[in-house]
Amino acid sequence: MFAALGREARARGERLEPRRDAFRARQIADDTLAAIRSACPPPSDVVYDREREELLRDVELFLEFESRRRPSEPVAFEVSFGREPGGEEPLAQADPIKVSLGGGAAFQLRGTIDRIDRLPDGSYEVIDYKTGRYRQDKWQGTFRGGAMLQHALYGVAATVLLRRLEPRPRIARGAYEFPSAKGGGERVEVPPPSRAELARVLSDLFDVMADGAFAATDDEKQCEYCDFQHACGGRWRRRGKARPPRQ
Ligand code: SF4
Hints:
By secondary structure, this protein is an alpha+beta fold. The protein has seven helices and seven strands, in the order αααβββββαββααα.
């Protein structure tokens, strides 16, 4: 929904503005909800109405968040690489991006960057939207012990994708944005690490994996939405319980 709104404003050459764009934002939200509802009916109208209100509030907050944004020009929304491009983003590409670790080692990266903005000095900001709660202690440091890599990896990917616009694009920073009610409108900026720093952290992580050491996180909350709970035992193992059978 954010991408749809952002693309419409980009096509008009305008910034999003709460008073002018609120009606259109609600339309997009309701159309999206109707499509989701027909594919996956809610358990009851009460649940649907409550969650719709929460979503509409988040869309409203997103517009307010946008109105406070420092000057910048959005150049890409939901730009994918290593995936079949949807056709709406000229920077998207089907091929993955090769990330070099030095010494001849490299790996292929695929993903979707939520948004890339051009800043007034011509450099770029790579933005990632977060819908969850903001916890200050979780968003400190450059890599957070290897758990916070997205800004660094997407910075590398954005540098490659933006070469279609200019030969030597410069990434000024990554930004994690929390525009929803849960996120409280917070924003965390992280300067891009040097390629050598990133290669060092990634090489360490790959070495650990190559040794077969898959250490479980000590923060149970991180397991909530993890796809690998049935493989590693995650939170059940920590509680000393057997994992429930896979449905
Ligand atoms: S379920 Fe396992 S892999 Fe997933 S976050 Fe938890 S400890 Fe990590």
